[in-house]
């Protein structure tokens, strides 16, 4: 096994408030790693630090052999890491096709800024088609994103997240607000798209977490209190105490 993503003594303060309080975490190549924890624990903040959206207060973030601490989001993306957001983040008036193509173009960056007519670019078209197929939205390509059912919108968002070909993918609550059926569909999709990738997923639905994850880390008030296999997490006393009174199993 080799480490793909490593967080070392990571800290983040907002003003005087410590939100991330010394996180050490190693994600191995090819694993599906879930991060769970109560609301406000700092899960999204952790993603913001890893993806370069927020500056870290102290500590280090390593992506393979690159130190990506406080690098800019697009640089981190070019090094192969991509993340989705907790709130659906698509261009509502653009079509499904155009949304995915935006993701593809963005990942290619300045390399293609000289191309006036995006339509004529075969590589971009092909990549966009591949993504549409993989998220099962090829037949809805012309529909404006805002008119898609919610689960399709989240699938589209996953498509945009993987459009650049990143092999480390961070998803933030991909099944939030979904029915059982919608959740099952999105979980199946996550399974498919993460097959040859490293996946980190923040998720509140415990059945999804235990179904999907090879390993689980539990973040409580900015600290990781356990990082282990699903079975060991289930039996972990500190974790059970942190989830006392909930339907955690
Ligand atoms: N940009 C920010 N400025 C100030 N406080 C923030 C900011 N972002 C998040 N926080 C605070 O950090 C804490 C953790 O938030 P968040 O990372 O969103 O938690 P989670 O995703 O685990 O629910 C919350 O108390 C939140 O109010
Ligand atoms: Mg969050």
Give a brief description.
With 249 residues, the chain is α/β, with parallel strands linked by helices.
> For the terminal residues, how far apart are their CA atoms?
29 Å
Strand content: 15-25%
Bound molecules: adenosine-5'-diphosphate, magnesium ion
Strand order of the largest sheet: 6-7-8-3-9-10
CATH superfamily: P-loop containing nucleotide triphosphate hydrolases
Characterize the main sheet: 6 strands, mixed
Fraction of helical residues: 25-40%
Please count the beta strands (DSSP E, at least 2 residues each): 10
Tell me what the CATH architecture is: 3-Layer(aba) Sandwich
> What structural class do the secondary elements suggest?
alpha/beta
CATH topology: Rossmann fold
Total domain modules: 1
């Amino acid at each position: 096994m080799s480490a793909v993503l490593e967080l070392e003594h990571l800290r983040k303060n907002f003003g005087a408030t410590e939100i991330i309080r010394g996180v050490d975490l190693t994600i191995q190549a090819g694993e599906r790693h879930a991060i769970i924890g109560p609301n406000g624990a700092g899960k999204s903040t952790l993603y913001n630090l890893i993806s370069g959206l927020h500056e870290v207060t102290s500590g280090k973030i390593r992506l393979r052999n690159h130190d990506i601490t406080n690098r800019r989001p697009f640089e981190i993306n070019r090094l192969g890491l991509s993340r989705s957001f907790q709130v659906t983040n698509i261009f509502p008036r653009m079509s499904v096709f155009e949304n995915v193509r935006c993701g593809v173009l963005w990942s290619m960056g300045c390399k293609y800024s000289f191309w006036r007519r995006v339509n004529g670019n075969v590589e971009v078209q092909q990549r966009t088609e591949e993504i549409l197929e993989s998220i099962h939205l090829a037949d809805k390509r012309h529909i404006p994103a805002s008119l898609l059912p919610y689960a399709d919108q989240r699938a589209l968002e996953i498509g945009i997240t993987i459009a650049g070909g990143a092999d480390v993918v961070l998803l933030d609550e991909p099944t939030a607000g979904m029915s059982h059926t919608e959740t099952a569909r999105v979980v199946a999709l996550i399974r498919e798209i993460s097959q040859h990738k490293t996946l980190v997923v923040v998720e509140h639905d415990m059945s999804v977490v235990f179904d999907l994850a090879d390993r689980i880390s539990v973040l409580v008030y900015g600290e990781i209190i356990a990082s282990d296999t699903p079975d060991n997490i289930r039996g972990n006393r500190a974790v059970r105490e942190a989830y006392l009174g909930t339907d955690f199993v």
